[in-house]
Amino acid sequence: MRTTIKDIANYTGVSVTTISLVLNNKATKISQQTKDMILKAAQELNYRPNQLAIGLVKKRTETIGLILSDVSNVFFANLAKGVEDECRRKGWNVVLCNTNDKHERDLSYIQVLADKGVDGILFCMSKDSNKKKAMESIQLIGKLKIPFVMIDRFLEEADCCSVIVNHKQGGYEATKHLLAQGHRRIGCVTGPMELEDSKERLKGYKKALEEMNLSYKEDLVYKGDYNRESGFRAVDHLLKQKVTAIFAFNDMTAYGVYNRLKQKGLDVPKDLSLIGYDDIFFSEILDVPLTTVRQPIYDMGKEAVRQLIEGVEAGIDLKKCITFEPKLIVRKSVAGVRKK
Amino acid sequence: MRTTIKDIANYTGVSVTTISLVLNNKATKISQQTKDMILKAAQELNYRPNQLAIGLVKKRTETIGLILSDVSNVFFANLAKGVEDECRRKGWNVVLCNTNDKHERDLSYIQVLADKGVDGILFCMSKDSNKKKAMESIQLIGKLKIPFVMIDRFLEEADCCSVIVNHKQGGYEATKHLLAQGHRRIGCVTGPMELEDSKERLKGYKKALEEMNLSYKEDLVYKGDYNRESGFRAVDHLLKQKVTAIFAFNDMTAYGVYNRLKQKGLDVPKDLSLIGYDDIFFSEILDVPLTTVRQPIYDMGKEAVRQLIEGVEAGIDLKKCITFEPKLIVRKSVAGVRKK
DNA sequence: CTGTTAGCGCTTTCAC
DNA sequence: GTGAAAGCGCTAACAG
User: Fold this and answer.
1) Considering A120, B102, B276, B284, which has the largest number of Cβ atoms within 10 A of its Cβ?
2) Nearest residue in chain B measured CA to CA from A232
3) Which chain A residues are within 8 Å of B274, Cβ to Cβ?
4) What is the CATH number of the domain that holds B92?
5) Are residues A157 and A304 in the same domain?
6) Which of A125-139, A216-230, B25-39, B149-163 is most confident?
7) Cβ separation of A80 and B72 shorter than 8 Å?
8) CA-CA-CA-CA dihedral for A68, A69, A72, A75, to nearest 10
9) Which pTM was predicted?
10) B337 close to A (CB below 8 A)
């Protein structure tokens, strides 16, 4: 059996209170002698407090839940790393929850985490969440009174703390970069349009076009889902529209585009320019290193944890919205438009 | 406040005992009427048992700890996914622990997980663990009496349940494939040689050479560390040794090799054949899809969870060693040896 | 300075 | 059929 505080009490002949006090540094008026004795005994007996018991009485577990769609997705894996790294620094732990982008799983994990007494939730909403579903999740967390911060995917109406990227700016910069290279027919492969971030990227795309007095054409916009396959599928459609460049709303989609183009014997960037979004690890080491918009997802994970813990410790729910600026990373997948 | 069992007691006028009994399906002799009433009340009051309290009395949390080096590494991300998926299926949770391959973190996480009352640990030892350190970890878990299963990285002496890949076979098949293509000077870039798995892959390499009556040459073996950089560094050395093919002990290293070769203007597989190990997601979508040895890491994660939970439920520590067979995945990075 | 006591939310033994 | 009571390991008022 593990040593308990009682064991120390028996061993030292002092009461559990005194022990608890000493071990928690709340021993303002305990004699140094007793303190030393207790500390020594605790060492000798190899005492470690039972965190379940502590959690039960203190209503604090120093544990957070991380809800995301899929850790095996590099982007989220980096998020998870940032989150866990920061938690470790603070002595906290993280319970990992994959929803596979299913909204009901968002809900059920929120409940389970509440049952386990987590102190907070880092919530990266599932992809299939429309506004109504998203609000449902938010309200559940609210009802459960668990501090939370939304990360990456957010919702205007939620009125909560969120850590996000200025996606409009990202979409804008990507498009502007393409425009600057002379491209005028720029296709895009979006993510799910229910998602705020996908909408924002599209807004940025439109804004860049407007600035150049170019009209926005529905036909150049292929509705994808952030998966590689959707990039793959988008190519045939966009090629028919005679685009000279494609802006994929995430890197994974860009890979799909790239693979399909290659399959069709088309070269990037000679025949077609390609730009991604996210800057996941592999984008750099590809044969044609991908020009992309970097989301500092690892740092965002860290920041989200900081906000969350700060909120928990202060006992208030912050409503800050921390916005990270995306960064255009120019590599080799974009070239000037071909002369006809 | 959350509804407690007491609230239901007040609400229904029945004792907490009865409620607990009913809610846990242990109500063999409670009248159907009372049962229904309690169940209904629980529903109405939105009752959910406090898992901390349950954990405290039952000494069961239905939570496991997953210790690995780095979730942002695709290989481990897949492991984590398999683990979490299987846990979810069983209604369990997983606490994620990244050690960054630091042995002291293995130790500290083991302690922390014990403090939190996890029911078991999935342990993927850190890279810097030599035999002594590894045993230290194992012994700590043992002392804490936590059921555990080692995954991917293992230790002969540990005498515990482990889920691993037959790495000798993997190394053998990779090498044999290269030999079959006519290669005779095959370089390898190993992982850390303290690791059992790296040793095994090398054994497989040797075995394949022996079968062809080829002598094993130290000079063709570059000691890497499973990182991309080590593949990068290995190239210059191995090229001097006039190898015609390189067997990288993991895909990440293979990418490094590939990148460096490209930098030097060498083509894979025309100038040099390359084979990896792991078959992580990206290997397939590279420009030159990587021939590699697949480790079914996702499935291994699932299996490890099954073993672990089985052990926990049965209350015994299984000492089974589940071995998965690796599979050679032939793609485009290996070609016949060039005629001089 | 230190100990007694109650209580966190639940399970479980035993008595009625 | 149901309830009282003890206890899991700990904290925190409150006494003394």
Assistant:
1) B276
2) B285
3) none
4) 3.40.50.2300
5) yes
6) A216-230
7) yes
8) -70
9) 0.94
10) no
In this structure, chain B runs to a length of: 340
Domain that holds residue B254: 167-295
DSSP A38-98: HHHHHHHTT----HHHHHHHHS--SEEEEEES-TTSHHHHHHHHHHHHHHHHHT-EEEEEE
Q: Is B147 domain-assigned?
A: yes
* Residue in B48, B52, B96 nearest the CB of A96: B96
B73: closest CA among B94, B104, B99, B93? Answer: B99
Give residue for tokens 């040689």.
Answer: B193
**A21, containing H or E segment:** helix A16-23
Question: Do residues A163 and A303 make contact, with C-beta atoms less than 8 angstroms apart?
Answer: yes
From chain B residues 213-242, the ones with a CB under 8 A of any chain A CB are 228
Q: Is A253 inside any structural domain?
A: yes
Q: Residues A287-311: pLDDT tens digits?
A: 999 999 999 999 999 999 999 999 9
Residues B147-180 pLDDT 10s = 999 999 887 788 899 999 999 999 999 999 999 9
Residues in chain A: 340
Same domain, B268 and B301: no
- Using the C1' atom of nucleotide D2, identify the protein residue whose alpha carbon is closest: B18
pLDDT of residue B339: 54
Number of domains in chain B: 3
Residues B266 and B161 in one domain: no
Residue A181 lies in a domain: yes
In a domain, A338, yes or no: no
Q: Are strands B292-294 and B327-329 parallel, antiparallel or unpaired?
A: antiparallel
Whether residues B31 and B129 share a domain: the answer is no
